Amino acid sequence: MSDTIITVKNNNWMEITLNRPDRLNSFTDEMHAALHASLTDAANNPDIRAVLLTGSGRGFCAGQDLQGRDPRKMSGPPDLAHTLETLYNPLVRLIRGMEKPVICAVNGVAAGAGANIALACDIVLASGAAKFIQSFANVGLVPDAGGSWSLTHLVGPARAKGLALTGQPITAATAQEWGLIWKVVANDDLIEEARALTTKLADGPTVGLALTKQAIHAAGANSFDEQLQLEAKLQQVCGRTADYKEGVSAFLEKRAPKFTGRK
């Protein structure tokens, strides 16, 4: 196993840590493969009902490690489309499509594709020291790893273009104010609050949470009537789960529910 990723299973959830702190957890091909393997393991394991993604050291992720993309050491231009199609795009698709919550704890700088991998997660907590940087313009690139889509949908085209064209960093507080992330947490409290949230979601009705993700992801493209139809379809699925029965029974019996997360 690669030491570029640390994976810890905690009862019914998994914590995945990007672990190249000397390079601000920037991506190499090895790290891509290790992260994809850990996320796939989490997605396919029915006993894992939530995932927490974070970074080691003083940063979350600085995006691609450009030492491996140095044009001065290459015989020709890199095929960056191939890089996206084989490495970054599978990662963000896996995160967004996972049928369980994915929480991200951004503990420091999140730049380039590192920022956009964080934004692909379902709930993003950030320390007060964190910064988000769409650094692509600084090297003549466009936002990738879903960044152009996430920025536009989360903060609107005006702010999306401002962030992408200038490469200007924004603080965690600004990211929260703009609706880019869920919440800013004090530096010393970040990981514990993120773990507590992940534990809570892992103990929740996993099927309902996964279908909630699906509904929200679809809302941006659906008409109102299409969304109503989707809600009815998904609610039918939820109503047939053991967790719905348990949730209603617990409510009526005035006790805490014990969800199993199974269909």
Walkthrough of the structure:
The protein has 263 residues and is α/β, with parallel strands linked by helices. It folds into 2 domains: 5-202, 2-enoyl-CoA Hydratase, Chain A, domain 1, CATH 3.90.226; 206-252, Orthogonal Bundle (Lyase 2-enoyl-coa Hydratase, Chain  A, domain 2), CATH 1.10.12. 46% of the residues lie in helices and 16% in strands. The chain has 9 helices and 10 strands. The chain has helices spanning 29-44, 80-97, 113-119, 147-166, 172-177, 190-202, 206-219, 224-239, 242-252; strands at residues 5-10, 13-18, 51-55, 59-61, 102-106, 109-111, 123-127, 131-133, 170-171, 183-185. Strands 1-2-3-5-7-10 form a 6-stranded mixed β-sheet, with helices on both faces. Helix 1 links the parallel strand 2 and strand 3. The longest helix has 20 residues, at 147-166.
Q: Helix and strand string, N-terminal first?
A: EEHEEHEEHEEHEHEHHHH
Number of domains: 2
Number of alpha- plus pi-helical segments: 9
Q: Using only CA atoms, what is the Rg?
A: 19 Å
Q: Any idea what the CATH architecture of the largest domain is?
A: Alpha-Beta Complex
CATH level-4 homologous superfamily of the largest domain: 2-enoyl-CoA Hydratase, Chain A, domain 1
**Largest beta-sheet characterization:** 6 strands, mixed
Give the low-pLDDT segments: none
User: What portion of residues belong to β-strands?
Assistant: 15-25%
Spatial separation of the terminal alpha carbons: 32 Å
Percent helix, as a range, is 40-55%
Order of strands across the main sheet: 1-2-3-5-7-10
What is the CATH topology of the largest domain? 2-enoyl-CoA Hydratase, Chain A, domain 1
For the record, the CATH class of the largest domain is: Alpha Beta
The general outline is globular
